[in-house]
Structure formats: C-alpha cells, structure tokens
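so i finally got all the pieces together for this one. its two components total, 604 residues if u count the protein bits. some of the lines might not be protein, just check the labels. i wanna see the whole assembly predicted at once instead of chain by chain like last time, that was a mess tbh
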Amino acid sequence: MYRLGVDLGGTTISAGIIDDNYNIIFSDTISTTEIRNEDTAKIISEDIGKLSGKLINEFKSYAPESAVQAIGIGVPASVENNLIIDANNLGLINADIVSGITRITGLDVKLINDARAAALAEYYAGAGAGTKSLYMITLGTGIGGCFIYGGKVIEGCNNAAGEIGHMVIDINGRVCNCGRRGCFEDYASASALVSDAKAEDSSINNGKDFFAALKSGNKIAESVFNNYLDYLSCGVTNIINILQPDIIVIGGGISAVGDTLLFPLKERVSKLVYTQHSRIQTDLKIAKLNNTAGIIGAALSV
Amino acid sequence: MYRLGVDLGGTTISAGIIDDNYNIIFSDTISTTEIRNEDTAKIISEDIGKLSGKLINEFKSYAPESAVQAIGIGVPASVENNLIIDANNLGLINADIVSGITRITGLDVKLINDARAAALAEYYAGAGAGTKSLYMITLGTGIGGCFIYGGKVIEGCNNAAGEIGHMVIDINGRVCNCGRRGCFEDYASASALVSDAKAEDSSINNGKDFFAALKSGNKIAESVFNNYLDYLSCGVTNIINILQPDIIVIGGGISAVGDTLLFPLKERVSKLVYTQHSRIQTDLKIAKLNNTAGIIGAALSV
C-alpha cells in the first residue's frame, strides 16, 4: 500500500509517498504561504493539493499498476472532526483544509496533530520499531506526550490525551499558564531549560548557546542542567510508573544532543522507577527520524 | 457464555458464576485458611477447587445444556506467568495455585490482580458501563490505578502499569517508601488522610472516626479534608491530562462516603483540568459494585 504524508509547518510544507516498508519513495517541499487572512485555508488547501498531485503523477510513472490510497496531513494544532482547531502560527482557527485537497486529488484526506504523527512514525519506523507500546515525549516550548498502544494513538475522550506538560510534579511550584502550579513543562521543557540558564547567565539565549556552554565546562550550565535532569527524570518516571510502556522516546529539538541528554536521564530514571519484581523495564531512547517523522507519521495515520 | 470468578482475600474466598449480562447466578463464600506455611498454596488450591466444583455442580442442574467455560481468580498480589508473586498477607510468594485448581475442575484458570479485576467489573458492569476507556483509582493503604481501554487492561511491559500511587506530585515533599519524594499516595491515600488527621486530633484512628468527625462539624477534620482534596484532585487531574479517559472511577473503602468525597473532588477537578477546546470532559464517579466487583471482574478476565 502506498500512502501520501504531508507535514504542514509554519515555514514549509513537505510531502512524501511512503511504501509498506515506511520508505519515502517520492518527496518534495514548498514554502508555506505567508498570507494570514480569511483566504489562508484556501491557499494552503490548493498548495497541498497541487504538491500532492505532482507527487502522485511522479508515482504513476513509477508504479502504473498501483495507486496512492489516501493522504494524511500532520498539522501543528489540535484536530477535531477533521478540522484544524487552533493552528495559531498559521492563523487557522476551526479551519477546513481537507475538502479542498480532496477536490483536487480525489483522495480521502485525514488530519492528525503533528506530534502524534511523529510518535506514529517512531513507533513503526523509528526508535520504537517492533514494540507494542510507546510513549513519545516531545521537549519544546512546552512538553507534548503521545501514547501509542498496539499501533494506535490513545486519543482520549476529547482527542486531547497526552497533555503531560500539564502533569503537576511540584504542587507548590511555579505558576503555570494553565492555572495550576508546578506543571512538568514549567521545569523540563526546552524553554524552561533556556530561561533557567539565562536567569543565571544572561549570555545564554537559546538551546544552542546552552549546550555550547555545557560542553565548554561552564559551571552554571552544569548546575542548571543537573536541576533540569532532576525534573525531567521525575516526569519521565511518573509516566513509566503509570503506563510502563515498552519504550519512551524523547523528541523535540533538544533531543538532537543525543547521549548528552539520554545517558544522565537514563541513569536517574533507573534509580527512581518503581518496579517491585520484574526485571523488564521501560527502555528510553532518543527519537530517530527527525525531519522525516512528520511525513512518515502523517502517511501512517491513514 | 458462563464464567466462574473467584475473589481470593485474606479472610474469605468468594466465588460466583456470571452470565453474559454480568449477573451472578450462583455464589458462595468460605473462610480463607489461616495456615501460613509451605502448604498454604496447596490448601488454597484445594479450597478454591472444591468451592468451584460445588458451584459448577449447582450450575449443571440449572443449565444442563451449557457449561462453565473458565475460571478467573482475583488475587491480592502481582501476577506473572499465572503465578502469585507477592501475596504477603497470605504468605504466598511466587506461588502456583492454578495447576491444583485445574486438576480438580478440569477448567482453564487465570489469575488477575484484584484491583484490575475490580476495574474490569466497573468497566463492564458498574460505573463505567458503556464507556470506551476507564481509569480506576483505588484509595486504600496506598493508591492503585488501572487503565482499561477498549475493554482490555493496559498491563504494561512488565505487567506493572498503574502504579499511580508513585506518581510524584510534590518533588520536594514527603519521603516515600519507594525512595522518591512527594508521591501521590503519601498525601491522597486513605492511610494518609487518617494519619494527617490523627496528627492534629489523636482521637481519630481510622476512616470511620474521620468521617464521623467531619460530619459532626469538627474544624480540624474539615481543614484536613480540604488539604486532602487538594492533593487528590491534583493527582486525578494529572491522570485526566495524561489520558483523558471517558470516566475515572474512584474505589477503595473510603469511596463508601460517596458524594461527601465525590462532589468537592469534581468541583476542584473541573477547575484544574487542562482542556483547551472540547466541551467533552472525563466523567468522575464512585465505584458501584463494591462487594461483587471481585467475583465479576475475575470472571470477566477469562
């Protein structure tokens, strides 16, 4: 079966056709329109429709006996009833981009939240390949979560499962924008790491600065990183105690530092986790697919 | 289909045969042997085997054309490979009670942790009937959790999912016996409620004393209960943010106070939960089946 996946981002739109082995056999990228008004949804629909049409035509020459079955689109937003609920960066609120794309391509189109798409990709084709249950934790401005069990995203009754950024780990802690105190993402998101470091060393303005400082042996960065790891391992251990997935995959930009993050995190978690008897423990890995996860996961969602 | 469920407790063993509508059509109870030595497993096997045989015989007169398909046994312990791993109250460690019961009855026998059995019962026949996903929270000496999704217990890679009692909600808080600080059950278990109350009013020795004091307008009890509800609602809201199940069912002895617990808990949770868009929210209910949950859930596990 061949499926087309689209990764709709704030600056680019990438699309690709994947085969049954999760290989991307054709792909292309265009810029996302910069227009933000009542026409945005229509323009994006047409752009995705044309990009998809182009790939489908290339595919036809490649495999004239086969057909692309459906299109999955990963969007930086909540999704309900195949509508984009809140893609604030794109100015799309309760927006329908699906019907326009179906009109152009003649194919069924399904939207999926982009973090969930990335988790699906890691489950089938990335760090979690071969496991039954995977929890993906994405460290970014906030912290996103996605639980995949038996190949399916656990969506929740309102399609909003995975808000682990708003799991309280310090009931008397920092005030969170959700109204509670001490949420996981107030301490363990990439943003929290940078702002905690910047508060101690004003020359640190982003993750790149931070990890450069850490690598150079900056004592402030080391101390901030140790605190960060305490909080991150606390939240990761909570998820393990609650769900005991086969694997937890850490994604988001910060995961690019790989073992710098993974090794001390694993060490801490193995000491904290509550397992009474079994020697089987949740594995911890860094996300593997990065740039291609969006396309692969969106394709796998259909 | 007819199935036999057994609830193996520290003082009594209850068994019942249920029909397809989850009605218990025959049941009986015996005392659990008080012998705690190397013969305990054998004695318990024989007792359960005989009790089951008696019910199966009664069933044969009732429905000679039908047959009991299998036996499920709820045990107060972790279960691995159909062994009782740690029923400390019964003195059963890595114990096989299954083969003896199969020998006597000729039926397949499956063990399930008793808290999971209760959750299955609530899912199919109790407070969660008709839902797709249920999270059961049992407030007792500790806090147990069980997530049921699409009719199946989410067991975890090591069969140990549901350790929500060891979800940290106060990273700098009370030292827990698991080695971490600020675990949910250190604040929101029934034991924590009683010991927090006793620290303020030494006449309170158990849950009954506590709720009597609360009912009589005791100001200390009111204040302790308010704190307790703050912690309980924190943990419950965490589970909702992570999983967004259709329903959370509150069980355990303390849940017998019903609305005294449920109303203020619901009020707090509805203010804390993080839902950005949807008006669909996780429902909160008190467990419904109590005494029969063990038999029904054990039967449903096979």
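Residues 40 and 92 of chain B are 7 Å apart (CA to CA).
Chain B touches chain A through 55 residues (CB under 8 Å).
anyway lmk what u think
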